[in-house]
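REQUEST ID: PR-0412
SUBMITTED BY: lab tech R.K.
PRIORITY: routine
TASK: structure prediction, single protein chain
INPUT:
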Amino acid sequence: MRAFPLPSLLIAGAVALSTPIVPVVGRDVPASSQQMLAAKATRLGATEVTATARADGGVTINGRLDGNQFALAFPREWTGDGLLYAHGYSAPGTPVAVSPDPVDKGPGTGALGEAYAQGFAVGHSAYAKAGLGVEAGAKATARLRDLLARMGGKRLYVMGDSMGGGIVVTLLELYPRAFAGGFARCGVVANWQDLLRRLIDMRLAYNALTKGTPYALPGNQDVRHDAMSSRPPAGTPDTAAQAYVFGQIAKVGMPPLALWTAAQKDPTGREARIVHAVTEIGGFDYDAASLAYPLVTAALGADDMATTAGGWVHGNIGKVYAAPSLTAEENAALNRDIQRVEAAPQAIAYLRKWRTATGRIEVPLVTLHNRIDSLVPYAQEAQLAAAVAKAGRTAKLAQFTVPPTRAPLPIGGIEGYTHCGFDKGQTLAAWNALRVWVEQGRKPDAELR
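STATUS: complete
OUTPUT:
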């Protein structure tokens, strides 16, 4: 990672142009700031570059880096600050793309728009693949960081959600001088091996406890493979591909939600004990979303996990499962009937590399997590704090905890705990706390106001 940006490029005067500009490439000096930015990005290795004037006088640059789509928005009076966003996990088969407008249609609950209004260039990059993408996301975001630095970026930050939060920690650990600070929301910030263990154990237990019932997951029952593929047929347009993926999510998600509905009718019945057992085994709360989201992720992501990691990612040979909600006889039956699988050593090594946090951070890191999260447990925050303390870097970590939120699930209409359930005020308070910390050296306290 290079940390020597070229001189800052001022982009005043762009407001006069309101349509996309085809970049001028070569030795001629472009006449407009849009053309200048586009040509500069092209010279620095970007392809398919276009520039579009924003209504506020800024410029948005779209293109590709190493084949990955990216978008960068530069304010009219840019002085070199920048904020890049790393997106989270998407089911395999999801179109690999990001919004072409990182300001008005960008992610992060308004953080990118707030930073842009504060004079920051903001942007994000697609990854080379959907699914498990810590490595792909870290590399794509690092490339975008280098491009922005060479276009004039000086003080650059990185933020991300969920898997993207883990990518933030990864980038800060791998490239300690590349960013001024990091902001990770609801992130897998400490240990991917731990998270996948939880999700896969839940699928293993669910398969054993619902076998032969109307609540069994459809398709393949071998947890080392997808229950059914979420990848649309080759050549499917992106809009149809997204609909296909959502349809597969619904097919896998409906049986657990049907089980949850039945459990609510008889809180002491067999269905309720199964829900309790499966969520207990994963370390989640007794909740519809905390049951369905992990199961859907494990059931539609297994093939991608194994392919990405170079082998199967979780082993349970000899493990004894014990759920307090089950009787001794039921626990014995669970351990007798549960599928036994063995992890591949190379896959475990991969997950340690991409990523188990070392805690060795050199710049301020702010994290934000709901106390209860239906997909990434709060335990990730405790594990990160322990790793950072062991590395002697606690002075560089500020962790904000906010209450859990609930909302209707995308399928079934049942309410459950959210994943990344933050409002704009919480997000902007954490972002501005990071800015003050970096710019003024004042570490924030542990509460958002």
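NOTES: The chain is about 40% helix and 15% strand.
REVIEWED BY: pending
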